[in-house]
Amino acid sequence: MAVKTVLVGAGGMARHHLPRMIETGADIIVVCEPSADQYEKTCEKLEELGVSAPPNEPDLATLLEKYGDELETAFIITPHVFHHDQTKMCLEAGIDVLLEKPMVMNAQEALSLIEIQKRTGKLLVVAFQGGLSPQIREAARLIQSGELGELLNVSATVWQDWKNNVAGTWRQVPAMSGGGFMFDTGAHMLNSVCTLVGEDFKTIAAWHDNRGTEVDITGVVMGKLQSGALVTLNCCGETIKTINSELFVVLSEGVIRTGQWGERLFIQRAGDKEPIEADLPPMLGAWEQFLDVRSGKIENPCPPEVGLRMAKLWDAIVESAKNDGQMVNTLISD
């Protein structure tokens, strides 16, 4: 059954999502895109997929006045600084929202979206592949259930040739992006770690190196969870033309290895000679998972509360890095 949708933001990432959206029944009846060039490219992509080009209304408030009664869902794929206000507008217009990562710029905005979502009763799913993947969800269940014993240590690393890839774009403008590599590609790592451990950090220390830009390109975080488990997070956005990640979780009765997108899961329990790959369904795209949540097939694995946990961590990272690794001992209460 077709789902009447507004595409808020029609840049390259939106075009990445379009094939699966169209295959799974998205009826994009209108687009909200201020750039005429990006709108034209998205129309060309839709026409390649056999879909007529929808109209464009660059102003979201005007769009909702014109089309709000027709719309069921919104997929918001815009620069990070716009996420809070655009999501607020759509939820208050009675529209279910799939929101690209990171959810918001900071914890105060996350708390605001939680209040709005509860007040409106509409659905808000954050498009973190990790949180949406069966692999990360199973790993989180194993960790938080105690099935693999006590959580002791988490080590996560992500790398990409990000600095050159996004040079000259809004992603390297702090007021638009809210951060650099660690808050963009690395946001998947931060969110997946938060999802896996299921608890807040108690203390963190962080360092960033902007590598001649206005935003962080490389960074490292050392932290202690509320439970006492130790965590290291390592990001490098200036390397050879690759992108990859590794997440290791060490427990008293097992070791888990996965990636920040949840694209794999290996488990080695006490007595196992080698890690064993988990037999789980393949990870689906964010839009497909969103539809499954809307239809009641699965519970929402990435609600705004998950975004809040990551936002609290990011606020602490920013504060510590600004002060050359000074420890941050308290995080905002939810």
3D structure, described in words:
By secondary structure, the protein is α/β, with parallel strands linked by helices. It has two domains: 3-128, NAD(P)-binding Rossmann-like Domain (Rossmann fold); 130-282 and 304-322, Dihydrodipicolinate Reductase, domain 2. The chain contains twelve helices and 13 strands. The protein has helices spanning 12-23, 36-48, 60-67, 83-92, 107-120, 129-132, 134-145, 162-165, 174-177, 186-197, 286-294, 304-322; strands spanning 3-8, 26-32, 73-76, 96-100, 124-127, 151-160, 201-209, 218-225, 230-236, 243-251, 254-258, 265-269, 276-277. The strands form two sheets. An eight-stranded mixed β-sheet has the order 7-8-9-6-10-11-12-13. Helix 7 (134-145) packs parallel to helix 10. The two termini are 38 Å apart. The relative contact order is 0.15.
Keywords:
Rossmann fold, 334 residues, Dihydrodipicolinate Reductase, domain 2, 2 domains, globular, 13 strands, alpha/beta
How far the N terminus sits from the C terminus, by CA atoms, comes to 38 Å
Order of helices and strands: EHEHHEHEHEHHEHHHEEEEEEEHH
What fold name goes in the CATH topology slot of the largest domain? Answer: Dihydrodipicolinate Reductase, domain 2
Indicate the radius of gyration in whole angstroms.
20 Å
Tally the helices. 12
What's a quick, concise take on this entry?
The protein is an alpha/beta fold and 334 residues long.
